[in-house]
Amino acid sequence: MEVININGTEDTPQVNLDKDNGILEISGRSLPEDVNQFYEPILDWIDKYAEEPLGKTEFTFKLEYFNTASSKIILDILLKFEEIVEKGNDVVIKWHYHEEEEDMLEAGEEYADIVDIPFDYVVYTD
Amino acid sequence: MTKINESQGFLDFAYQMYKSMKANEINLVYEGEVTQDITKTFTSLTEKNLAKTEESNSVQRKVFQVMVECLQNISKHADSICEEEEDRRGIVMVSHGEESYNIITGNVIKNSKVPELQNILDLVNSLDKEGLSSLFKKQIKESRISEKGGAGLGLIDIAKKTGSKLTYEFKELNEQVSFFILTTSIKRSK
């Protein structure tokens, strides 16, 4: 399957999607004004991944900031993985947050309330 | 002669403005078009300035995030005084006092949109932390990204992050449009 590697910028995240190596990760900042344009290839990739997912998927979010437009897209991503879970596959969301960033932990907990996927919260200190 | 008077007038104005910015501890003032590039420039400028202060990282991040939401609100939703003008313009002001950082934004809005916006603001202000979290979860599930790329979540998010009420005012400019002023405060760490 195609590999996506996008370097982060001051307003868009770093994205690594590599099925063969089991790497699915979004990190950094996500504040684009046009979220649809940025995330379209990522959502397309996940749709293809969902056709033949790994038996166990670990999806990593290690975001420093994201704007509310991105928060909606993140939910769309999670809903796609929820469907993968419903088809009987294992998925775990690794939700990273900085120890001083209570808001980021709470954001993860809010998503965990909405979607039916197990979340692992991972604290980091830089 | 008039030229000299005029330039003297500007000098006086610049000096008065400098004094008043210093007196009110204003860090940034801007009036003009608000685009994603402007948003990036101001937020990174503020971020760099805050990094030089002793402010806690968590306050710095909140100021940054609230600025992004406020500016993107203008770049997505601002209307203009005349129909021909398509730029999304606004004013942006960041100041700080002993207790808090204040982010003030202002933009033109069509009178027809005022009641709906006022309802959202009043609803957000009536809720506590838990209520805001429930509203956020409800909205994020129901909302679809609009053509402009907004998800209608900005104001809820600002209230959640700041833990303060949103102060606002609508000044009617004419029969078509009003000026909308929004003030948000982020408490400084002690």
Topology, please?
The complex is a heterodimer of chains A (126) and B (190).
Chain A: E1 4-6, E2 14-18, E3 23-30, H1 35-51, E4 56-66, H2 68-86, E5 90-98, H3 102-114, E6 119-124
Parallel strand pairs in A: 3-4, 4-5, 5-6
Antiparallel strand pairs in A: 1-2, 2-3
Helix pairs in contact in A: 1-2
Chain B: H1 2-23, E1 26-33, H2 36-51, H3 57-77, E2 89-96, E3 100-110, H4 114-126, H5 129-142, H6 154-162, E4 167-172, E5 177-187
Antiparallel strand pairs in B: 1-2, 2-3, 3-5, 4-5
Structure overview:
The complex is a heterodimer of chains A (126) and B (190). Chain A is built from three helices and six strands; from the N terminus they run βββαβαβαβ. Chain A has helices at 35-51, 68-86, 102-114; strands spanning 4-6, 14-18, 23-30, 56-66, 90-98, 119-124. In chain A, β2 (14-18) and β3 (23-30) form a beta hairpin. In chain A, α1 (35-51) runs parallel beside α2. Chain B has one domain (2-187): Histidine kinase-like ATPase, C-terminal domain (Heat Shock Protein 90). Chain B is 50% helix and 23% strand. Chain B has a five-stranded antiparallel beta sheet. In chain B, β4 (167-172) and β5 form a beta hairpin. The longest helix of chain B is centred in the first third of the chain and has 22 residues, at 2-23. The N and C termini of chain B lie far apart (54 Å). The relative contact order of chain B is 0.15. The interface between A and B is medium-sized, with 25 and 33 residues.
Fill in the CATH topology of chain A: Transcription Regulator spoIIAA
Q: Determine the structural class of chain B based on helices, strands and strand pairing.
A: alpha+beta
The profile of the biggest β sheet of chain B is: 5 strands, antiparallel
Oligomer: heterodimer
> What composes the largest sheet of chain A?
6 strands, mixed
* Total count of strands of chain B: 5
Average pLDDT of chain B, rounded to a whole number, is 89
Helix content of chain A: 25-40%
